[in-house]
Amino acid sequence: MSKEYEVVIGLEVHVELNTKTKIFCGCSTEFGGAPNTHVCPVCAGMPGSLPVLNKEVVNKAISVGLATNCEITRNSKFDRKNYFYPDNPQNYQISQLYYPICRNGHVTISAKGGPKDIRIHEIHMEEDAGKLIHDPVTDDTYVDFNRSGVPLIEIVSEPDMRSADEVIAYLEKLRETIQYLDASDCKLNEGSMRADVNISIREMGAEEFGTRTESKNLNSFKAIRRCIENEVKRQQSIIESGEKVVQETRRWDDEKGVSYPMRSKEDAQDYRYFPDPDLVPIMVSDEWIEEIRASQPEFKDEKKQRYKEMYGLPDYDIDQITGNRKLGEIFEGAVNAGADPKKASNWLMVETMRLMKETGTDADKLKFSAENLAKLISLVESKEINNSIAKEVFEKAVFADNLDPVKYVADNNLSMKGDSVDLAEIVKKAIDANPKAVEDIKNGKGKAVGAIVGFVMKETKGKCDPAEANKLIQAELDKLN
């Protein structure tokens, strides 16, 4: 009879903070620059260069700590983590081992049995390494130091997760929280959020943990889920064959769906940590903490509850709108400018999200203002334009360039009210031009009315009110019976 096993998972999540400059120098952190153009003697590890701490990195680290219920370390400092790797220019990384900036926190996720707290052991600040680029044609390897010195926080959880579902829920909660704080964009595909996953299994009911392995630098939820499922099966197979799991660091190849060992898992002593002699301790005052706490935004869970009470929207609508801080800001701004909450919600969930998907636009890069969305909704409600024209105006003017929809409608002669042609006359013309459709309608073929409606829409260039047109068509048809 096969034994039952429990999965035990802890995460080390690396998040690139979105400061304008690097953690210890003034070089740009912008993603995508030409190789080795965002580099200076400090982040290139030149002898004699001295680091200077970027205060905004500390501000953002503390803000994440407060949002994840952490204790803030009042006397924090940096340490040197010594190791050689080609993309590590100094042969050490400036990090925090002994006194990390945040400790003993937690976030609450939705798990199978209900809400569950995932404990956070610590959050520490550190600098990122460079990037190795392998040329498959020449078999050469190049080093780009643009990323070297980009500020990171590493969020280290306790081994509290018991399934891939819980891991994804935890990562989604972290990403949502950090994005609301505007501390990072958390784009997994660009490497600004990535996870090391520590996995072990033990017999169900056992108290001692099994031997863990670490899977490095996973940067998609899909890859993380597949890696966990694969590693659990691998460890179970090893144990059931009578062998022992080796503690090691492994690399997951998501394309091939396999993992392979990289090196034996290091402990802290293998890095020969010692206090960095070039950086002074960070003294965090109560006033500093309270200043950051006062600037914290309203987070998703709080916002969802308020939206339900204030606007009476369905849960699905609320969940979609609050999924991103920018969407919530546009929604509230449009409602404050006079838009109906449900209609503002629909424009965001349907047309906005459709265009975001088609154009590859992230929510935080949306150009249009809440005021212009409210104006567009008002144009439809006042029957200045119909829904079809409104979608065109939204796509071409509002979404694309944040143009004033009122001015755009006037400049492009799109108003239904501004049409000099009498709609009733066009309806009569449409009926006269479609005798077969009229005959079909008399014979009970109701769908034939589409030909008449289409004629009206063509004659009015799509600017008429469909409801009004249908009403007039029905009135004229009734006269013929």
How would you characterize the overall build of this protein?
- It is a single chain.
- The protein has 15 helices and 16 strands.
- It is an alpha+beta fold.
- The strands form 4 sheets. Strands 2-6-7-10-1-11-12-13-14 form a 9-stranded mixed beta sheet.
- Helix 6 (315-321) crosses helix 8 (341-359) and helix 14 crosses helix 15.
- The N and C termini lie far apart (80 Å).
- The relative contact order is 0.09.
List keywords for this structure.
single chain; elongated; nine-stranded mixed sheet; alpha+beta; three-stranded antiparallel sheet; 16 strands; 39% helix; 20% strand; 15 helices; 481 residues
Total number of strands: 16
Approximate helicity band: 25-40%
C-alpha geometry: elongated
Count, helices: 15
Poorly predicted sequence stretches spanning 5 or more consecutive residues: none
Cα distance, first to last residue? 80 Å
Largest sheet: number of strands, sense, barrel closure:
9 strands, mixed
The secondary structure category is alpha+beta
**Mean pLDDT across residues:** 90
